Structures are given as C-alpha cells and as structure tokens.
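Worked example (supplementary).
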Amino acid sequence: MAQKKRLLKNFPEKVFVDRKVWKKERTRRILKNVEDVPCVIIDNVETLINKYSRKPDPVGEGKKVLWITEQKGDFVKPCPCTPAYLGCCYYIINLDLNCPFDCTYCILQHYLTNPLITTNVNLNDLWKQLDEFLDGIKGRFIRIGTGELADSLALDHITGNSRDLIAYFRGKKNVHFELKTKSVNIDNILMEEPEENIVVSWSLNSEEMALKTEADAPSIDARLEAAAKVCRRGFRIGFHFDPLFYYSGFAGNYDRVIKRMFQAVPPSRIAWISLGSLRFPPFLKRIIQNRFPKSRMLIEELVPGKDGKYRYFMPLRKKLYEKTVHSLRKYGGEKILLYFCMEGRNMWNEIIGWKPRGKEDIEKYLSFPQEMS
Amino acid sequence: MNIKIIPLSTISLDDIRFRISFFPDLKSMTDSVKRIGLIHPPLVCRREDKSVIVCGWKRIEACLILKIKEIPVVYSEEKSDLKLFQTALFENIAFRNLDYLGIAEAVLRLIRFGRTEDDVIKTIFPMLGVPTTYEYLDLYLNIARCSHDVKREVFQAGFSIDAARLLMRFEEDDRMVLARIVSPLGRNKQKQILEDILDIAHRDGKDVQHILKEKEAAEVLQSSTLSSSQKAEHLRKYLGKKRYPALTEKEAKFRSRVKSLKWPADVTIQPEPYFEEKDLHVSFSFKNRKEFLHIVKNLEKISQDDNFDSLIDK
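After joint prediction of all chains, the assembly is encoded as:
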C-alpha cells in the first residue's frame, strides 16, 4: 500500500460508482483496491459531471476522483490524428479516460467534456468489440493501445486492466498491443509472461521539461528504471518523445536522456520510438495560461499549422527533430523504427529519409518492428 | 406595483445599483419617445427616500435629453434588491441579448445582492448563454470591476470578448493605455497586439510600460505625424517582429530574394502560411493570350536567373 501511495499520492480522494455497474464483479474488484476511500453511488452522471465542471479548476478537481462506469459507445476507434498531416493508422481503446498526472501540455484538459478520471468496467463488451474489429482488419498488421485518452498503467494497481488486456492480445497474430505510460506502476506487468506482440511504452522528455511540465508524473530516471525492469522481464519496449520542446539547451538535454534511455534498454529491445513536437489547438493556450500561469512552455515561436493547431515555426521544429534523431542514431538506434506523430511528408523525408505516400505506408513500416532477440 | 406620474427631477441618477447598461445608444430611443411618447413606464423603487431606477435607464435618459418634466413610472414595493434586480434582469433578457459588458455588470450585481457564485454559474449563466464555468465567472467579474473609463474604451473600440479577456490579464493601469492604443484597429488585430505584448512580457520578464518605452515602440507612439490608426498598425508590426524573430527574419529574406529577382509587380508570389510547407504559390490574371504569354515569358526569364533557386528552401 505504501508503494501505491507513493505512486499516486492520495488518488483517489473519492470514488463515484455508476449504479448500473455497482454489482458487477469488476467494480467490486476495483472497490476492494480503494476500500479506504469514501464511495458514493451515482444515479445521474450528468449532475455529477456538471458539479465538477462548475468547480474553479474542473480539470484539477476531476483528477482527485475515480468514476467507475460503463462505456456505452465504441471502445475501439481509429486514432483521430489531425487534418492535413500524416497519420499512422494507430487504433485506440478508450477503456480509461483522463489521467491523474497533471501535464501542462495535456490535450485532455480541453479534449474531454468529462473531467473525472473514469474507468469502464464492461470489459465483456470490449472483448466482443475487439473480436469484431480484429476480424475486420484481416490482411493488415495494426497497432492498438490504451494510452491515448488515459495513461495505460497509472491506475493499473486499482483496475488491473493491463493483465486482462495482455491476456486478450496474447498471441494475436496481426496486432501489436501497446500500453503507453509515464507511470512506474509495473507490478502487474512483471507478473505476466512476455509476448512478442505486447509492447510497453514510456513517454519521455528531457529531465528539465519533465520537471517543469509533467506535474505528479514520475521522474525520467524512475520511468527508465521501470522500463529496464519490464525489458528484463522480456517485454519489448517503446518510447515516445512527445511532446518535444524547443528551448535553449534542448539538444544537450535530450541527448542526455537518450543516452540514459539506451543504457536502460538496449536498442535491440526497442520496438519503436515516436517523435512529436509540441502542438495544441488554440483553445488550449487559454487553459494553460489559466492553469499554469508561470509556465514558459508557450514563449517560443508557435504558429498555426495547416490543421489550425499551434506548432513550432517549421525551421525550429526541423532543428528539434534533427538534433533528437541525431542523438538517437548516435547512441545505437540506427535500426530502430522512428516515426512522427502529426507531421507532414516533407518532415519524414528530411529527417527519417523516407517519404511515405500515405498513412498506409506508415502502417506497413511500423508493422514489423524488430523481432525479439 | 402601481403607476405614478412623477417629476423626472425626483429620480436619482446617482444610484446605479441596478444599472447594467452604461453605454446605450440613445438616438433611437429619443426618436421613439419624441414620436410616440413613453409607452412602457420605467420601474423604480424607493430607497433612502430616493426614487431609484430599477429598469428603464435608457428611457429616462431619453426623456432627460428631450427635457420632459414628468414621466409615468411603475413603483415597486419590493424591499429585496436581489428580487428587484432579478426582475429587471429577466425582463431585459426576455427582450434583448445582453452584450458581455451588460452580462458582466449583471453578474457582479447578482453576487453583490446575495446570489452565490455557484448559483450564478448554475442557474443564471444558462439563461445568458454563458458557459457554466468559473473561468467565465472570473472573466465577467474582472470586466465588471474595471474602471468605467476602461469599459468605455472597450465598448467604443468594439472589443471582442476574446480581446477583452486578454485585456483583463493586464494591470489596471496598463489596460487603459493598451485599450486606447489598439482601439483604431479591427478585432483580430486588437487581439493580436494584446496577445503579442502579453507573450513578450512573459518571455522577457518585462512589464508593459517597459516594452512600450523601448526605442522603436516609443518612436511610433510619440510620433506627431502618424495618425492613431497608423500608430496602432506600426506597433502591431513591431510587436510581431519582436514576438516572432525567426519567422520575421525568414519573411524578410524571402521578400528580399523576390525583390532581387525583379519579380514582376503584376504576379503575386506567396509562400505557404508560416512556411509550413515548401510550396510557393504564384498567381496572376490576364485578359488575353498576349497578356498571358507576356507574363509567362517574364516568369521563364526569371527562372533562368542564377538566384532563382534561392527562393526555394533546400
């Protein structure tokens, strides 16, 4: 228990349970893991969400509570990417929503109308949907993960979702399943047998920017230590340098973290590394300024991109990628699959040295990450 | 409630506790009263032996302009300021959309008269079409608490709510200065100046006065030859350069390369917005084959210039 508290301070301060799922076995399992936390059964979720939305800091307040409910719509969706840039045919599973970490740049501050940290317990529906989905993509090799609208492992000591997901995807031939996290919540993963198509990934940043912009998330050293343990257990590891920040001294700072990354996880065990520079819709700027008025994250030259989202002015962005990729290659990542999140074909061509014709090309490129050695 | 005819002079114009519109357009109301008289009597109440206007400031001000001596008013016996104000507010919003200055005054008064902040967000904001969040409550309260002069400037300059929101992020002393500077510009440019100056102040750790006193800005603002709109436009460009130095440099280089190629004036050449892609866009118009061929020939000649490749990013 002491370790769990260290992982997530005192989350959750309160648990709300949708009456519809109150009696479900999975709900009971979760509640057992938070038995010392006050719990309230809720009949009307709208009232609950409205109550939190009216608080002075709905995003911050929502991070203190756990909402246990069921997903009414689709669990599985194509990653929406962004208009006018290249997607990568990633698929997302919206099992949990929101995240207890409070990253300054997080799109979820703006993206979701529900500020509560939400976990859905109707996993039987998820398995059915996944069966249908995987049936429908025969002939393709896809990547799918739970880390888009939530951190895949941050709540894992409470929900235990990772073990069920790994069990589901184990041995599936045409899919890579990815758990994407900033947490060090790996106890459940370490209890699982590794499998070639299961990738556990960490979001990384320079230590300086992690400290400044990733409140409540574990340090970079702690993340790398967790990655090393999961790697030693036999899983393949992914890394996501997203968002990369352009700032004075960025090259040296990212170089240091990349060097440490390869010390923690050998290149042969890395399935892929993604790169994405800071980007956000205009509305998020206001949220960041309100919630993090002292943040210097927005002081560089950020201009509207083709999708209307703010990005670093192209030459700065290019420099950011050039230096980062140089460090990745320098420390042993010559063969590792690198890919961009939300960049254009020219950036691929200039930095990776290959001009994909479309997202299907990228799907193929990422379909056969290095075999387990 | 009862209707009485009372001398206009007995109505207190100093007590503005119920007032939410401070910058009314009186012309149409004055014309209307002149033509057909005062059809709807204003609502007033008695407070400390004064007749205080609850609803109908515009009508009363029109009567004052027309030098009408006596007017009919509806007297309310209601003792609760909150209840009276709500009556006035609900009547107002039944007939017209309040602008954000009006909403700001209404929110401030509701809270002064005893409604809780949460209650205002929950029950009043939906009626006013305002998002039910504290962010908006804070915004409206900040606007309402601005000095009257700042509010007047914001009103007269036609600030959008987004520009007003940015203005609220400055100190009170700076608000007036900035509101005056940007007032001749259109809404987007007003917003751009405020945003750039906020970003520069935050990035460089300088206050607004310091930025406006820097040589180039001061020369613009103190110029005796530039009009106020020219000053605002020059300042906008100066701040843009300061906020986006790499972009400015790239734009300048591009312009100078185009110029060095003696690019024809009747052919437009544009990079992608913010140079996000390398493509360049050329456009021209022509009336006949001769004109078309003339332009194409000219462009072909330019393309053979040794410096032509300098236009294209490697």
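Two points are worth noting when inspecting this output. Chain A is about 40% helix and 20% strand. Confidence is low (pLDDT under 50) at residues 1-6 of chain A.
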